[in-house]
Design brief:
By secondary structure, this protein is an alpha+beta fold. It has helices at residues 59-65, 69-89, 93-96, 99-118, 136-179; strands at residues 15-20, 33-36, 42-45, 47-54, 122-129, 132-133. The strands form 2 sheets. A 3-stranded antiparallel β-sheet has the order 1-4-5, with helices on one face. A 3-stranded antiparallel β-sheet has the order 2-3-6.
Length: 180
């Protein structure tokens, strides 16, 4: 008697997983990522793109573990969200504005996501994300603070310049008074 078998076909081509917008879409895109910062404030990423592929030698693991490519994608969603929230959540909203902190968080998220996916037969190829976005009121505060910091730096530079020129000006005044 022949044994019934079920055949599954998995593509070796890389696939994309996207987060963005406010709701899930038919093309596999899911809602944008929201992160709670260490200071309790929330911010999000307008888009996150994950490129991955199934490990050819791990097709059996993928089939046993996920059952289908769609379930593997759902797993990527939960793993990507968890990895990104963990990595970016260690910074406050002020700290995440510093480019080196964003780069460190992105690298930590990538390493975490690679480790999580590897156990399930999926290889992470690329993880890219937009700059963080904040609520409009908070964005306005950030802009005002950046302008204030620029003004402060400019005024400090002027102050240093004036202090440096003070002895020369005093000497000029003294010589003018001596002439009178």
């Amino acid at each position: 008697l022949p044994v019934l078998q079920e055949a599954h076909r998995f593509s070796r081509r890389p696939f994309e997983y996207r987060m963005g917008g406010n709701e899930a879409k038919d093309d596999g895109a899911t809602p944008r990522l929201l992160v709670r910062a260490r200071d309790g404030a929330s911010y999000g990423f307008e888009w996150v793109l994950v490129q991955a592929r199934l490990e050819p030698r791990a097709a059996g693991l993928v089939l046993e573990d996920s059952g289908s490519l769609e379930r593997a994608r759902m797993r990527i969603d939960s793993f990507a969200r968890a990895s990104l929230r963990e990595a970016f959540g260690v910074f406050s909203t002020d700290e995440i504005l510093i480019p080196s902190n964003r780069a460190a968080a992105a690298l930590a998220a990538r390493v975490s996501l690679e480790r999580r996916l590897e156990r399930h037969g999926v290889q992470l190829l690329e993880l890219t994300l937009s700059a963080p976005s904040f609520a409009p009121k908070y964005e306005a505060i950030i802009t005002r603070r950046q302008v204030a910091e620029e003004d402060t730096a400019r005024l400090q530079a002027e102050s240093v310049e004036l202090r440096a020129s003070l002895p020369g000006r005093l000497q000029e005044l003294e010589s003018l008074q001596a002439l009178e």
